[in-house]
Amino acid sequence: MSYRQVLLDCVAGAFDLVLPTHCAGCGAAGVRLCAVCGLALQSVVATRARPDPAPDGFPATFTAGQYEGVLREVIVGWKDGGRPDLGQDLAFALRVALAAAISALEPRESSTICLVPAPSSPASVRARGYRPVADLCRSVMRQVPAKIAPEWSTR
Ligand SMILES: [Zn+2]
After folding, report:
1. What is the mean pLDDT, run by run of 10 residues, along the chain of 155 residues?
2. Half-sphere exposure of 41 (CA within 13 A, CB side)
3. Geometric angle at alpha carbon 60, from 121 and 153, rounded to 5°
4. Claim: this prediction has a pTM higher than 0.90
5. CB count, 10 Å around CB of 21?
6. 12 vs 82: CA distance, rounded Å
7. What residues does the ion ligand 1 have nearby, CB within 5 Å?
């Protein structure tokens, strides 16, 4: 566990003393993530995603889910709701999508896997003081074996 995570856990613990905890997915009282919402996040299935229209040469792209339901609520709570404790749950979903991308590579293919965080607006970066999605991508990348370590891109 990193120093940062320990600090975030301490802050979250202190926060829970002041305000009651609630499920980030459905709002149920007394839990940070209820069993139903936790299972929903643990059950994400990576799928290929493609914008419509897609530019020529658009690479194979994977997502851990649609931006809706429990996943959306957890992302919003994590990014803008003062719930940094949810980062570990979102890291799991990102690892699922990354594993799908790695599995889709042809054995002799020399393609590069890029994690591309959706960019935060300048106003959001100023308000938060950091880039949560970029930080999440960096965190997940550090867990990938070096021989298949993806590149990180801000493009
Ligand atoms: Zn819930």
Report:
1. 73 63 92 94 90 88 91 94 91 90 73 79 88 89 67 53
2. 26
3. 40
4. no
5. 18
6. 9
7. 23, 25-26, 28, 34, 37
